[in-house]
Write a structure and sequence with these properties.
- The protein has four helices and no strands.
- By secondary structure, it is an all-alpha fold.
- The chain is elongated and about 50 Å long.
- 17% of the residues are buried.
Length: 115
C-alpha cells in the first residue's frame, strides 16, 4: 500500500511538472507554494514507502532530484521555463519534510521507549 501511495504521488508530481502549460496563478508566485507542497509530500511519502532505505542515501537522492526535475521539465516541455526559484521551493519542501521526519522520530523515541 505504501508503494502504491508513492507511485500515485510520483504520477501526480509528473503530471504537474511535465504538462505543457503551467498551472494557473491563484496569486502572485502561487506556483512556488505548489512546488513546496508537492516536494514536502513527495519526500514524506518516499520515506514512508521505503522505510528500510538508509536516510543517508534517501535524503541526498531527494535533494539531487529536486533541481534535476526542474531542469528536465524545461527539456521535455520547452514552453516551460527553468526557474531557480522553483528549484529553491523544491529544496525547501524536502528540507521541511526532513525536519518533520526527524521530529517525528525524536517524539517516537521519547514516548515509545521502555521506561
Amino acid at each position: 500500500m505504501r508503494k502504491l501511495l508513492f507511485l500515485a504521488c510520483c504520477a501526480g508530481l509528473a503530471y504537474g511538472l511535465f504538462r505543457p502549460e503551467p498551472p494557473p496563478d491563484l496569486f502572485e508566485e502561487s506556483d512556488k507554494l505548489l512546488h513546496l507542497i508537492a516536494f514536502v509530500g513527495l519526500a514524506l511519502v518516499t520515506r514512508i514507502a521505503f522505510p528500510s532505505t538508509p536516510g543517508l542515501l534517501l535524503w541526498p537522492l531527494l535533494y539531487i532530484q529536486a533541481p534535476l526535475l526542474e531542469w528536465l521539465q524545461h527539456v521535455l516541455q520547452p514552453t516551460r521555463e527553468f526557474s531557480v526559484m522553483d528549484v529553491l521551493a523544491n529544496l525547501c519542501g524536502i528540507s521541511i519534510a526532513l525536519m518533520l521526519w526527524v521530529c517525528q522520530c525524536m517524539l517516537r523515541k521519547r514516548y515509545c521507549s521502555p521506561a
